[in-house]
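ok so for the tutorial part 2 we go from a plain amino acid sequence to predicted structure tokens. step 1 is just haveing the sequence, like this:
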Amino acid sequence: MKQIVCVKWGSAYGPEYVNRLYGMVARHATPPFRVVCLTDDRSGIRPEVECFDLPELGVPHPERTIGKWRKQILWGRTVPGLEGVALFIDLDSVIVGSIDDYFSIGDPQDVYVARNWARPLERLGQTSVFRFPVGGNAHVLNDFRADPQGIADRYHFEQHYVTAAVTGGVKFWPEAWTRHFRLHCLPPFPLRYFVRARLPAGARIVTFPGGPNPDDVSEGRWNKNVPPHNPRWAHLRAAFGAGPRVDAKRWRHLQRYVLPVPWIDEAWRD
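step 2 — the prediction. this is what the tokens look like for a chain of 270 residues:
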């Protein structure tokens, strides 16, 4: 049984993200499989998804850090609805090819993560897509609960802490499987004003850490601060005059432009 798990809390992502994740898994995983969602709000989630209450972190969320520390609950000795081996996929991910090999690679006790391509010279993991033996590294959560602010201050991001804390170290997916939208798909500035994001050969899952989100890219915008399908000249004018900006800083606004991407519309659906 292939087990895929996601975590949904707060209002950042609606139930459509969970529903589309299930649809993508159904198209790209050979049965049998199950999709488990740990959440604080089950409303609107399709019945095929097995929902369980999202456990409490157990300690105050660290301050002065943007890391998604709530995901640490996946490293508990027990995780609601899960046992054996599970594959975690962030909700803001787009599955574009078979994910069967994510379950068969390596030893079941291995922890596999994507490489953090934003810092390629360091051996850091990126936890948008990771496989783990449930309960196999319970010290990761226990140690975090013992000193949440200290660990956050030291590592800044939960994925950096996981990279350092997993017993025996993490392993990385083959490079072609898990691609980062901004780094591997989106043309460099200023070509992105004229060339659409490409789907790299051999990609299985495209991740969107740090934005933009798939729903915005499908509408040709970086975020919801600007209108869908914002013309390139309107985007440029906003940097130097009136008009909505993606970011208050001019250079960031200029860089953050994206054309609609047809392959996202094709893949990211129920």
